[in-house]
Amino acid sequence: MKIKSGLLLLCLLACMSARAQNWGGGVDDSNLHFGFTFQYLSSEYKILKKGNWRDIGPLPDDPNPPRLTGISSDSSPGFGIGFVVNKRLIENADLRFTPTLVFNDRVLTFHHDESKDNVERKISSTLVEFPLGLKLKSDRRNNFRAYVLGGAKYSMDISSKKKTNNANITDPGEKW
């Protein structure tokens, strides 16, 4: 027991006296620097149902389609790869531009009554994103600095065959 206590005390003293990592990379001193990003993401559809969402109508191959009892979307993985361009504006503010290419699949599941199986529809998308951000940062204290990030992003689905008009969305909260 005394040996374990002595080793624990020795480790604590060694940790307190060690200066692990003081920033010396020089990134804070450069006006312009570059980098890259790899992103893992998980996405799903937000489903908004209209009053007649169960009426899918007759299908060409089945005049009496099964009754639709539910629509759901589970989370699906994806990934993105991009560049980082960081420009220092003033001492504690940076402008960041991070164009990214995102590959993503989403799955919609149509639930029918018990006579038919559920139908899954996989929708693949490839997005190009152009976020522009402002990074505000505090003064560095040893190896600590606080950040506040904000900005805007433009995204475009380059794999979509159908172009949608955002003005046609009926729910005003979903337009932006």
Largest sheet: 7 strands, antiparallel
Strand content: over 45%
Structural class computed from helices and strand pairing: mainly beta
Computed CA radius of gyration, to the nearest angstrom: 26 Å
Task: Give the N-terminus to C-terminus distance in angstroms.
Answer: 63 Å
Mean pLDDT: 79
Which series of helices and strands comes N to C? HEEEEEEE
The number of helices is 1
Helicity, in percent? under 10%
So what's the overall shape?
flat
Number of strands: 7
> Are there runs of 5+ residues with pLDDT below 50, and where?
170-176
Describe the structure.
The chain has one helix spanning 2-17; strands at 32-43, 68-74, 76-90, 93-97, 100-112, 119-137, 147-157. Strand 5 (100-112) and strand 6 form a beta hairpin. It is 9% helix and 47% strand. Residues 170-176 have low confidence and may be disordered. The relative contact order is 0.15. It is built from one helix and seven strands, in the order αβββββββ. It is mostly beta strands.
